[in-house]
Amino acid sequence: MNIEKIKTLGELKKAGYQSKSIKDELRGNLITSLKTGNKLFDEIKGYEETVIPQLQTAILSRHNILLLGLRGQAKTRLARLMIHLLDEYIPVIKGSELNDDPLRPISRYGSDLIAEMKDETPVEWQHRNERYTEKLATPDVTVADLIGDLDAIKAATLKLTYADERVIHYGLIPRSHRSIFVINELPDLQARIQVALFNILQEGDIQIRGFKLRLPLDLQFVFTANPEDYTNRGSIVTPLKDRIGSQILTHYPHSIEIAQSITKQEAKVPTDQEKNIVIPQLLHDLIEQLAFEARKSEFIDQKSGVSARLTISAFENLYSVIQRRMLINGEEKSIARINDLYGLIAALTGKVELVYEGELEGINNVAIQLISKSIRSQFINYFPDPDKMKKSKLKNPYQEIIHWFNEGNTLDLMHTASNQDYEKLLKNIPGLSEVVKNYTKPADKAEQLLLTEFVLHGLAEYSQISKKKLVSNTSFRDLVGSIFNMKDEEEE
């Protein structure tokens, strides 16, 4: 259909246009996509076997949809991607505030214009990007905001009585006729406002201030919410929940690999950082492990959830921590270090809600513990388990390193150490490079140094040596000596 040539209702009829509801439109386009093998919602990772099939089923059933899940689970992103299942353009009566279908007008304006101009009624075309409305539910949202109210100024200006429906000022929902309408955080909407949605969902019409008015609105509703049991801010009233056709549970990534693909896709890294800084796979693993550790930490409120934005922010910060170090040392290129993880604390502290025990521990200490647990969890994916090696009858590959520290040697690794100083410090410790060569295959010298540092952090997390995170450096010592030093400090 050549939409550029269709300017009137008569031309639209001659072209053979047929009206259809938005739910039929979504359903028809989804059927076509599934038949042709066109990938849908491919921006969303990790939902291929869970959420997306359920969402497609809901669309095929022509249901209104509730996406239920913790924060940072791409609920709103899913809703926004649904516009790609709409027709690229649809005809509307020109000047209609309710996006009237020229063949099925619902407003007084549309009906009167067609009665007056008949086949000469002007028609314009609306792109699918204009057929999406999103509203964040907040306690101050009113029925007038969503549905509409009488407009005294309009009544006075047009010299109309309140019995005339033309005095109505329509809210967001009627103005979204023939569109996808999304309400985010539905439980935050006051119960009386949720009740006002009943008739729209069940009957497809609205009531305003007692008007004998029937507007058969054509809408695809998508609601998002945290699970009711997980929030004390409010709940979804039962009759409203009953009227929502499909409730779909979202979830966090089930694997490190999926989580990494999400982080890489969503992180926005400046070009100069990406060009001059190398982030080895180890650091990608450690950053994603942070979120996995946070989602099972006893100090973090699991009912609140740990958003995928945690790792995205941490990944972006990692580049900036390294760039800051490069600028201080006048270096052009660098590679990520384990020590750089401590520069990500600011990205972690704002992304988690603590329980009472966590508040007592302190948010910074909780963040440091998450880093420690991430290193411990990932260490055995790269090197032998130090605990098992200690108990094994085989030669302990870490013995030479541990012995070096037991003899009173220490290592103070500055957070802003230059590449040259970093290499010099790590090369001084006997046995470190041998462990890396025996168990890993570093891509180059820089990555070998990173893995060398990782061995030190890993041994510390498995209590083979001592590690203390200070303001400007990380200090490694022998385990026994550090315990006595702590006692001396307490006595003083």
**Helix coverage percent of residues?**
40-55%
Largest sheet: 5 strands, parallel
Question: What count of domains describes the coordinates?
Answer: 3
Number of strands: 14
Give the terminus-to-terminus CA distance: 86 Å
Q: What do we call the CATH topology of the largest domain?
A: Rossmann fold
* CATH architecture verdict of the largest domain: 3-Layer(aba) Sandwich
Order of strands in the sheet with most strands:
4-7-8-1-9
Q: What is the alpha-carbon Rg in Å?
A: 31 Å
Provide mean pLDDT, rounded: 89
Counting helices, strands and paired strands, the structural category is alpha/beta
> Counting H and I runs of at least 4 residues, what is the number of helices?
24
User: Which residues form runs of ≥5 with pLDDT under 50?
Assistant: 486-492
Looking at the structure, what is the overall shape? elongated
Proportion of strand residues? 5-15%
CATH C-level label of the largest domain:
Alpha Beta
Short description:
By secondary structure, the chain is α/β, with parallel strands linked by helices. The chain contains 24 helices and 14 strands. It has a five-stranded parallel β-sheet with strand order 4-7-8-1-9, covered by helices on one side. A three-stranded antiparallel β-sheet has the order 12-14-13, with helices on both faces.
Description:
With 492 residues, the protein is α/β, with parallel strands linked by helices. The chain has 3 domains: 3-139 and 176-187 and 217-249, Rossmann fold, CATH 3.40.50; 253-379, Helicase, Ruva Protein, domain 3, CATH 1.10.8; 384-492. It contains 24 helices and 14 strands. It is elongated and about 100 Å long. The model is unreliable at 486-492 (pLDDT under 50).
